[in-house]
From TrEMBL:
Coiled coil: none annotated. This is Poly(3-hydroxybutyrate) depolymerase. Pfam families: Abhydrolase_2. One of its GO terms (molecular function) is hydrolase activity. It comes from Corynebacterium testudinoris.
Amino acid sequence: MKEPEPYSSERVKLRHGGRERTFVMVTPRVLPANPRLLFYFHGSLQNGNVARNFTGRTFDAIAARTGTVLIYPDGVERHFNDARLLLGERTRELSIDDVGFTRALVSWAVTHRGIDPAQVFACGFSNGGQMVIRLLFDAPGLLTRAATFAATLPAPNNLLDGLGTPEPTPYLAIHGTADAIVHYEGGVAGLDHEHLRGELLSAQDSAASFATVNGLGAGDHARRVLDGVSIDTWARDGKPGVELWSVEGMGHVVPAPKVIHSTVIGPGTDAIVAADVLAQFFGWD
């Protein structure tokens, strides 16, 4: 007989901003008192369940192993209203309040899962990574730690108007050097000329910018290389750290033990598993 999954999952509906929003809730079967909460924000044209399969359910496994409540929010029409000025999607046309929705999800999880509101973590892929960046700007102090996959900071001319100022927050970025959608070297991002997302910083400059926010500079930077992965760190006692994991030859994906067959997003990798790197950086292992 097959062993039961070490977690339960369900799609939940929540009324917010005058519309019915949905999210996938993953709850470990063994749940500690006052557990932490992790958000995973999906990429463009995905939803919560697609994101789970896209990452080989590795984040579900991390949640179960570490006793973490995990929420995969669903974007409106499969997109989040993120930090970029250039976002030609219905979520922007409708002025969807995904920051407010995220806060509502935290409140929901406090009420229904007893999570500790002082331990709210978030990660996101592509459009979802840009949503995490928006939360850092527009909901400063909400996130305990943050991570992005295949997403870099918008250039100043492509940062959404009216955002707030981020607070120092530990930050992890994972990016493929062969990403043809969000280029590792920076520049205009997008799937094609009809779906451009404006100019973004390079992965290196983006990570360095977050290090600056955290009070870190060039003197706090170090680099090491392990099996085709370059790991840049900015660290100093008393300051929130920043890490950039650059995966040689990887495309527009989240590193996971799942075979990727796509000429659009490019190759995957077996060098690292993003969920494991995240758990280590977040201090859960």
